[in-house]
Amino acid sequence: MREPWSIPAELSPRGREAAELIYNFLDEREMTYTGGCIPLRSPREHRDVFGEDYGNDSELLIIHDGGNHAPAFNYAYEDDETRAALAELLEGFGYHIEQCTSFYSAVYWR
Question: What is the model's pTM?
Answer without folding.
Answer: 0.94
